[in-house]
Amino acid sequence: MSKEAILETEDLTKEFAGFVAVSGVNLRVERGTIHALIGPNGAGKTTCFNLLTKFLSPSKGRIKYKGNDITHLAPADVARLGLVRSFQISAVFPHLTLLENVRIALQRVRGGSFDFWRSKGVLDNLNERAMQLLTDVGLESFSNWTAVELPYGRKRVLEIATTLALDPEMLLLDEPTAGMGHEDIDRIAALIKRVSADRTVLMVEHNLSVVSDLSDKITVLTRGRILAEGDYETVSKNPEVREAYMGTGHA
Asked: Whole-prediction pTM value?
């Protein structure tokens, strides 16, 4: 029995000066799942992701989140509804500590402006929650480090922590393991699995090992269209998918 859809698109299409980057995409992401969006280079994954997170406006089609039409909302308005793209909020300040970075992200939840002019006591009230978030992602021992001191993989973990500070109901991850070594990939994959326990995750990801280990459902894009959908075993055996994607050396 299928689960309730939390995010859906209807005939989602994006054209750039006559070039159709995304064409008639009908995507259905079920609540409480990890859903991967994959495909070869130029398949339209990034454009589709930017449409979903409102960094691009569709040429036609609709986007619905929790049954509500969000097609014409701004990115910040969509984030306030609980649909948050990791790495979009630029809350990682290189010369602030990890604790300070997460604390600033927590201020977004409070609403209104940042509390830079408030007393230290007001900000310190956020420290407990900030430390809990750092603990949740395995960065508690680095809380007093400045972000610039972190190696690349742990910096990406910090970015996820700042996103989790917004308490998203649905988390969109854009190539979360890109540019990482095996140890960092394993760390990020384990983190995605943990944070998906009480939220929905949609991710664009090139690493098929991560996709196969984490994903409940996979949507394969090619030339801006959906080629196949299903679990990893199903899509990996699809001859068209193997030709379009697996045959590129990623099998």
From this structure: 0.89
